[in-house]
Amino acid sequence: MDMPVNVPVDDPNADTEWNDILRKHGVIPEKPPSPTPMIEEALTAARKQAHENRLNDKSLDELDELEDDEDAHFLEQYRKQRMTELATISRASIFNQVYPIQKPDYSRDVTEASRAAFVLVHLTSSLGTNVESQLLTELWRVLAGKFGDIKFCEMRGDMCIEGYPDRNTPTILVYRDGDIKRQIVTLRELSGSNTRIEDLERLLVDVGALKSNDTRLIQSRLRDETSATSGRNGPQDDSE
């Protein structure tokens, strides 16, 4: 009976004539394909996507400033697209305030309303000492005025759900298409008593109520960057 022969192989993945002979006769397996082409393809796709999205975070004023750097036709088309988005947001902005909800109206004002738009409900505390609930009430007003195409509602937790523990407030319920899509119990999941508008805006993006390139978010970021720059520069001392 033929006995197997141990063929010496220094590196089975090396590109050598000896390894080619061994692969041909099935002594060592075929060399796996190089990942380099796949990596290069992924990098090319990423660069292309980045180039296509290069204007997403630009305001209309910034688009005007790019006239010398970008193709005029492309820039005009993009500007029209952005103006169309703004007009669509304006038409959809029919709420623009926080709606107090009563239990008999909950199905109509929340569940059914969510078939046409995102509806966010803040279940508030029944106590005046709940700092997070007070904070969210203030932030809710800001969000409602800023994102009029999203319906923001408020209701006391124990009036919505009998026996609802105050320790679970504030609670945020996100409705869409007649169902609860997300539930956040207290602000611990966000930033607790340090929760800011930016935290809630990220939540709106996460649940799909806003797109990450929403013009209103871009404008907020630009204002924040301007404020941060002004703060770093500080007031100039003319006495020097």
Quick description:
The chain is an alpha/beta fold and 240 residues long. It contains nine helices and five strands; from the N terminus they run ααααβαβαβαββαα. The radius of gyration is 29 Å and the shape is elongated.
Describe the structure.
The chain has 240 residues and is α/β, with parallel strands linked by helices. It has nine helices and five strands; from the N terminus they run ααααβαβαβαββαα. A five-stranded mixed β-sheet has the order 1-3-2-4-5. The model has no long low-confidence stretch (mean pLDDT 78).
Molecular shape: elongated
Mean pLDDT: 78
Poorly predicted runs: none
Indicate the multimeric state: single chain
What is the terminal separation in angstroms?
A: 99 Å
Number of helices: 9
User: Which H/E pattern describes the elements?
Assistant: HHHHEHEHEHEEHH
Radius of gyration: 29 Å
Structural class: alpha/beta
Strand element count: 5
